[in-house]
Design a protein that fits this description.
By secondary structure, this protein is α/β, with parallel strands linked by helices. The protein contains 10 helices and 9 strands.
Length: 245
């Protein structure tokens, strides 16, 4: 009887038939390089009410697939995690590509016992002046807090202890999750870690859709909505949910 997987990678996906195969190719490479063995990596695609062939592609690539009708990214992440069998959980977006040594780096970080949660960080697949300045804006905050994006990982028992991602949030659920995990780690002397040597490659398609300077406008609108000028829900709908692919 086969043993349970060690690492479960959860991929929330909405209409990702174009980019999901690229991610899965990179996951296959990282699984093949994993010292624990390819069979120790479980891949779960949380199909978030896709209307294209996302689910079919994932099944054809031998991924576990869970259909999630609630159009909230946090719900997709949680539904994928609920299906997971691994002791370690990892999460990444469907438009990314992961580093070949991702799973080994996660294993090494967890083995130290010093970290409650971590992330690989990302590098962008293309670069422009607007993208470079956007990165320059974000890096000090990332450096100060150690909170990053890319492939996010933790122990499954810790994920369950904090209740996973907050499904009441339609945006910034990933930031909220890291803050919650940070508090948990603080109670036992653990912290966040950034695995900068295995950065994922992040898609820049939102910059292609909204313009290379859109992030600055997005931050201003987010700040305004936070103090009651405008709606966070409307902002989330436009930038994260009303997507035509």
């Amino acid at each position: 009887m086969p043993s349970a997987p060690r690492i479960s990678l959860v991929i929330p996906a909405y209409n990702e038939e174009k980019l999901l195969p690229r991610l899965l190719d990179s996951v296959d490479e990282a699984s093949a390089a994993y010292r624990g063995g390819r069979e120790s990596v479980e891949v779960i695609v949380a199909d978030n009410a896709s209307t294209d062939a996302t689910g079919e592609i994932a099944r054809a690539r031998r991924c576990a697939v869970v259909r999630v009708e609630k159009r909230v990214i946090a719900a997709a992440r949680n539904s994928g995690a609920a299906l997971a069998q691994g002791e370690l959980l990892a999460f990444c977006d469907a438009d990314m590509q992961i580093h070949p040594q991702t799973f080994n780096a996660i294993e090494d970080a967890i083995a130290t016992g010093r970290y409650v949660v971590g992330a690989t960080g990302v590098r962008l697949e293309t670069m422009s002046l607007g993208l470079a300045l956007t990165c320059a804006l974000m890096y000090p905050l990332v450096w100060l807090t150690r909170m990053d994006t890319g492939v996010v990982f933790c122990r499954r028992e810790d994920f369950e202890a904090v209740g996973g991602y907050d499904e009441s949030l339609r945006l910034a659920e990933d930031v909220s999750f890291l803050w919650t995990m940070r508090r948990l780690g603080g109670t036992r002397g653990q912290r966040l870690v950034r695995l900068r040597r295995v950065k994922a490659i992040a898609s820049t398609r939102k910059f292609e859709q909204f313009g290379q300077w859109h992030y600055f406008a997005l931050m201003l609108k987010t700040a305004a909505a936070a103090v009651g000028i405008g709606s966070l829900d409307e902002l989330a709908e436009r930038y994260w949910y009303d997507i035509r692919r």
